[in-house]
Write a structure and sequence with these properties.
Blueprint lengths: L9 E6 L5 H10 L3 E6 L4 H7 L3 E4 L25 E4 L1 H9 L3 E3 L5 E9 L12 E8 L2 E4 L4 E6 L7 E4 L4 E4 L11 H12 L8 H16 L3 E5 L4 H14 L3 E7 L7 H12 L4 E5 L1 H8 L5 H23 L2 E5 L4 H4 L9 H6 L6 H5 L2 E3 L7 H10 L4 H4 L19 H20 L8 E15 L2 E14 L7 E2 L4 H14 L3 E6 L13
Parallel strand pairs: 1-2, 1-3, 3-4, 4-11, 12-13, 12-15, 13-14, 15-16, 18-20
Antiparallel strand pairs: 5-8, 6-7, 6-9, 9-10, 10-11, 17-18, 18-19
Helix pairs in contact: 5-6, 5-13, 6-13, 8-9, 15-16
This protein binds xanthosine-5'-monophosphate (XMP).
The site of xanthosine-5'-monophosphate (XMP) has 12 residues, from loops.
């Protein structure tokens, strides 16, 4: 099987549950070195079969002294590979090799000044003193026999260490976070100078390898793929198409819950710009009927998810001879979560419409399952996809149904579409579309009194929501310029029939959520 990373140049991160684990993999990939994450209990065989040039041990919410604290896989050091321990990773190396880890009830959290005494190898290119980010309780009291101290901070007498005769390194601080400004140099040094990687992995090499891999996997079979117009399914379609051409058929189910003109635009894009075969099905009436009288948001989601599976299957059957279902699953959704990882993985799961692969009895093709979102965008750019396709804001699967509070009707959909179109249009015109994570309108189940000319009105209220965020897990309300908000409000009230009041949502997440339902 073809593998990413030239000549097996790959680094493995063993995840002990730190919230920063993914960042280690991202920094590595930014350095041009392919990197994956395995749970810390993956076992030696699985680790060996990955074929890494080096292994990074992540941080953890645990203390090595705690009962049930995760340890190194049995026989770990017999692998003979270069190792870099980060924070907890440093502490388990110390414990395993006979050093002393001091218990501490006080956490050291925040910036610290790292004084480097040995600038060879890991710290090459750094200054004598560097800002680093600490987030730990325990600290190393004495390194294992045969280890030398490479750097110190005021609070950590051993802030970095290495074995004198083996390529085993460890850091008390977190090189993967932005608060350690030169941390990426340290990680890159580990991969390149210590593990001997060249750093030549990029989206172009990914594309070549993945297209070959798709061809090899699929053979002469046919593939279907459900597209939504979003970045993931579009890039997924493009790469499968690049690999197998017209043996890919895309399916676009218009659930009637998309934004103004969006369904039409998606089809046009695929047919005229991307030249990818796509079958469109307008199922808006089916969805609307199923949603009649439904007010509860979770029921709306379930109904929409179930109808989608049903309609999709219906259409797929009409294509015939298909053996594979392609999906734009991304890496954050497939990283095996370590059981003690925080609640973030759980919160996200309810968002997945899911269910398709299980019921369809098709083999699953997931060409993006090794990529992070920003890499998917870069891959799209590499394949020449338009900027507006690549940088589309995320849009929830249940669409406008969860932005109409209460019952979804054709009339309310029409009102929301117009209001939403104004919000997005104005944000784009102000050049802020890419700076905000999501921006949209919400139709409230509230009517309020207004005046229009000499008459009193009693009409709907619309909430405008615009948030900044890195990943949708946390978010802050966007500080949009007053004039922009004024223009949006004015236009909605004047141009959208049935709306006489606009409010701006200034809640952050948490405790709020991005969507209103
Ligand atoms: P919340 O509202 O939970 O949203 O802060 C976080 C992100 O998830 C999107 N979202 C969904 N996406 N199906 C989806 O595909 C859903 O049911 C769903 N609910 C929320 C939301 O737009 C935001 O990007």
């Amino acid at each position: 099987m073809l593998e990413h990373g030239p000549e097996g140049e790959r680094i493995l991160v063993l995840d002990f549950g730190s919230q920063y684990t993914q960042l280690i993999a991202r920094r590595m990939r930014e350095a041009g070195v392919y990197c994956e994450i395995y749970p810390c209990d993956a076992g030696l065989d699985k680790i060996r079969s990955f074929g890494a040039r080096g292994i990074i041990l992540s941080g953890s919410p645990f203390s090595v002294h705690q009962k049930g604290a995760p340890g190194l896989p049995k026989g770990f050091f017999e692998l003979g590979l270069p190792v870099l321990g980060v924070c907890y990773g440093m502490q388990i190396i110390t414990k395993a090799l006979g050093g002393r880890v001091a218990r501490s009830s006080k956490r050291e959290y925040g910036s610290a000044l790292l004084k480097i005494s040995d600038k060879g190898g890991l710290f090459e290119g750094l200054s004598d003193v560097e800002n680093v980010w600490m987030s730990h309780g325990d600290r190393i009291e004495s390194p294992p026999p045969g280890f030398v101290t490479l750097a110190t901070t005021d609070n950590s007498p051993v802030a970095a260490m290495r074995s004198a005769d083996k390529p085993v390194y460890a850091l008390q601080f977190h090189p993967e976070v932005v608060h350690t400004p030169n941390g990426k140099i340290i990680l890159s040094n580990f991969a390149k100078k210590i593990c001997g990687c060249s750093g030549s992995w990029n989206m172009r090499s990914f594309l070549a390898t993945e297209a070959d891999r798709i061809r090899e996997t699929v053979g002469e079979d046919r593939v279907i793929l459900g597209i939504s117009g979003g970045v993931d399914s579009t890039v997924c379609a493009a790469i499968v198409h690049e690999a197998i051409g017209d043996r890919l058929t895309c399916l676009f189910i218009d659930n009637g819950l998309m934004r103004k003109d969006e369904a039409k635009r998606v089809l046009e894009n695929f047919r005229k710009k991307l030249h990818i075969k796509v079958r469109g099905r307008d199922a808006s009436a089916v969805f609307l009927r199923a949603l009649k009288g439904v007010k509860d948001p979770e029921r709306k989601r379930k109904i929409i998810g179930a109808k989608f599976v049903q309609v999709f299957q219906d259409e797929a059957r009409k294509i015939g001879g298909v053996k594979w279902l392609a999906q734009g699953t991304l890496y954050p959704d497939v990283i095996e979560s370590v059981s003690f990882r925080g609640p973030s993985a759980v919160i996200k799961s309810h968002h997945n419409v899911g269910g398709l692969p299980k019921v369809m009895k098709l083999k699953l093709l997931e060409p993006l399952r090794e990529l992070f979102k920003d890499e998917v965008r870069a891959l799209g750019a590499e394949m020449g996809l338009d900027d507006d396709l690549i940088h589309r804001q995320p849009f929830p699967g249940p669409g406008l149904a969860i932005r109409i509070i209460g019952e979804v009707t054709a009339k309310r959909l029409a009102v929301l579409r117009e209001a939403d179109d104004i919000v997005v249009g104005e944000i784009k015109a102000a050049g802020l579309y890419r700076e905000v994570w999501q921006s949209f309108a919400v139709l409230l189940p509230v009517r309020s009194v207004g005046v229009m000319g000499d008459e009193r009105t009693y009409e709907n209220a619309v909430a405008v929501r615009a948030v900044t965020s890195r990943d949708g897990m946390t978010a802050d309300w966007a500080r949009l310029p007053d004039e922009l908000l004024a223009r949006i409000a004015n236009r909605i009230i004047n141009e959208v029939d049935g709306v006489n009041r606009v409010v701006y949502d200034i809640s952050s997440k948490p405790p709020g959520t991005i969507e209103w339902e």
